[in-house]
Design brief:
Elements (H helix, E strand, L loop, with lengths): L1 H6 L12 H11 L11 H21 L17 H15 L12 H10 L11 H7 L1
Helix pairs in contact: 2-3, 3-4
Amino acid sequence: MVQYAQSFDLSLIMEDEYGLRLFLENTDRCAEDFSSRYEFPQRCLSCYRLRMERTAFTAAKEKNFDAFSTTLFISPYQNHELLRQQAEAAAEQHGAAFLYRDFRPHFRKAQGEARQQGLYMQKYCGCIFSEEERQ
């Protein structure tokens, strides 16, 4: 993402910390029982909630942006409805505007362009559980 933003002279705001402990603590809170806490959709719910709450807070309180969204909406592998619900809840909680666009129709084209530019594309969502499943 950093390389891509630099190639187009775009400003980029990002947190360069995974937050594993916070992710695991919140995954525990989202699960109905111990056995399901790291399974889909519990772990995704936790991740979406954490990411969207932080993004909404940053957009509304720290940066005073008109709206926020997420690059996750280009992925056909993400649960768009669950992600959208969490983004809308976070927007309401923090007084931010949320902008939804379904970018999935552009997924293959974006992959091709990323390959042409030599950008890294991981084959999992980024959480430790999806990485384990990928192995």
